[in-house]
Amino acid sequence: MITYLRIESRKLIYSNTFWIITGLHALFLIVAITGAEAFINKGLQNAENSSPTAIPLVSLYAFPMVWHNVAYLSGFFKIFMAFLVIIFITAEFSYKTIRQHIIFGMGRTSFFISKFLMVIVIGFYLTLLTALVAFLLGINHAESLDWSIVYNKSWFLAAYFLEVFTFLVFALFTALLLQKTGLSLIVFAAYIYVGEPILRSIIGDPVASYLPAKAISNLIVAPNTALLELIGVSFRESVRLTDVLLSLSYLVLFTILSILLIKKRDL
Predict the structure, then answer these.
(1) From 118, 149, 213, 230, which residue has the greatest number of CB atoms within 10 Å?
(2) Going residue by residue through the chain (267 aa), what tens digit of pLDDT does each one get?
(3) DSSP, residue by residue, 145-164
């Protein structure tokens, strides 16, 4: 297992694509999250000027809700790393390196394990980055520190890991299925942002909530704010067991399908 991680890490470290995509992801995520509260409150202040009633400002970075808020916002940027997974998987087919691995005795199962471990590492990296951003923002905006409050709701990080890990395995499956970089990127993005939303609008709830992209995103829903509560809108502030089980089911499904593709298809 250590050998597989060493092989994959070398491929990533010496790749300009890896550093570009990872850097852009981190940059956009940090800028968007750190500026979200000011951006929202600026809009609310402008709206308040023409409103007869006071509009409460949004506080995104206070403990313990900062874990929920940052995990939710971070979820919008996981597409960057999904693209990274697709690019690196399909590159193995484009440059015929997968055949070289198999010829030199790596084996199909070992090849899949190495890629799966890469996805796990990326998932942990995304979770660590999200945790660091949330913690630093929370500390910076805390008037006093009560560690029981600081770590309350930090379990949203576990839900975030499951969200990004399942999403990345979905990307892994897409790459193994289509094998071509451009096609895989287009099909994956088209399904996530166009195909499934259209399909959900056609079939409607509750069936729509069981589709993969929706099921994965349902793990962490939009957090509550004082403004939402004022207008009578309330989102749940926890992770439902049913959503966890559904995401785990998709994780297992995409993993099994990926293994079957590796084992059965002509490489």
Answers:
(1) 118
(2) 777 778 788 888 888 999 999 999 999 999 999 998 888 777 766 665 666 666 666 778 888 889 999 999 999 999 999 999 999 999 988 877 766 666 556 677 888 888 999 999 999 999 999 999 999 999 988 777 778 888 888 999 999 999 999 999 999 999 999 999 999 999 999 999 999 999 999 998 888 999 999 999 999 988 866 545 544 455 677 889 999 999 999 999 999 999 999 888 766
(3) --HHHHSTTTTHHHHHHHHH
- 3-state DSSP helix/strand/coil percent for the chain, to nearest 5? 75, 0, 25
The distance of Cα 89 from the centroid of its chain, to the nearest Å, equals 18
How many beta carbons lie within 10 A of that of residue 13, not counting itself? Answer: 9
Q: Are 229 and 56 contacting, i.e. CB atoms less than 8 angstroms apart?
A: no
Which residue in the block uniquely carries the two structure tokens 């509750």?
206
Count of residues in the chain: 267
CA distances from 7 to 1, 12, 88, 226, 258 (A): 10, 9, 13, 49, 20
What residues contact 72, with CB distance under 8 A and at least 6 apart? 220, 221, 222, 223
What's phi and psi for 164, nearest 5 deg?
-70, -35
User: What does residue 122 show for φ and ψ, rounded to 5 degrees?
Assistant: -65, -40
Amino acid (one-letter) located at 167: F
